[in-house]
């Protein structure tokens, strides 16, 4: 079969390589590090949480299924404070058929590079420059660039008409920790018996959340994510230079701003045996073009973060990349006698943009911005009626499905009535009454959200740092 070259050995590039090699294609994968180098000498590129549809796509393309190897991401729960100190809205729901997991991308890349080699794929270890990319594209029937937001991504111009931002909206930080129970006992103040994504949303300040995370070693840990509005109270990461400072900053922010979860996290420790287990950064959430042209005039195709960068607030980047791989894979197999020319590349990318990127980018930005009156109506209704919580939170699995009801009041009201059998006005009124009660309680007692209980952590979970 024709040779297909893939530049970049992240979770998207390696998944496409494994899928195509398994389908009989001659695949070349280019990476600046070998499998061991990626596993042992790099940081995870975020939490990489994915929901059910993306998990199914990985399995369909022949990659390893990590379900059952660690704690599932089986629910979503949120605490919402319109401003810091005002504990107002709290609700969550099991994800059921939409449940997913967060797996270290370093483990995925390592496993898939080994799998690709076993399938007969050609793995080239080199840093690909623009000139080298031109040579590769000249030799290949199709060249796919999956190198992330930097480097070769400049070959794919930012689409100003589709990109809402031209500057970072958050300063980002992530650190992995052990010492938080992962058996469903940790966050008894949220959804007892489950291991949810635990959101804490603060109007005007940013977001802080935790995700159950399968580390590259096979250890179940938690990923702590901090999204700071520039200049806000969480914006403390600029001077952090090592894992000790990162952990100290994370701990201080949790104790000060998320006291309701702290009892379950008091025994947490940084992963000192993995000095790369933290990162900081900032980027503008943007959509790029699906095709680019090398200096020699050869068309190349973007994939994953090279195509679109989502703010991590809704955990959509990894899942979108996997879905994109699935759609590219299907299009390649269904191509017939057509050439991999720029027209074909643009056609395939536009189909994915219409079916997924457009709605997912909009979904993410809805939560990145201050909530619109319609967004407040949705949240208030879900606060009032548990029957709305599953439909709302399961939309994280299929973000485009949240529209138009997340954005248009008439459709919101239809959605509320459809799931509750009650008039939207009555549900929202009940939610407003609950919110008023929460405000009064918060004013009188100084708190409103339920507090977690301290949990006993087996010593074996903390032994690696001793």
TrEMBL record:
<dbReference type="InterPro" id="IPR036188">
    <property type="entry name" value="FAD/NAD-bd_sf"/>
</dbReference>
<dbReference type="InterPro" id="IPR041654">
    <property type="entry name" value="StyA_sbd"/>
</dbReference>
<feature type="domain" description="Styrene monooxygenase StyA putative substrate binding">
    <location>
        <begin position="148"/>
        <end position="260"/>
    </location>
</feature>
<protein>
    <recommendedName>
        <fullName>Styrene monooxygenase StyA putative substrate binding domain-containing protein</fullName>
    </recommendedName>
</protein>
<dbReference type="Pfam" id="PF17885">
    <property type="entry name" value="Smoa_sbd"/>
</dbReference>
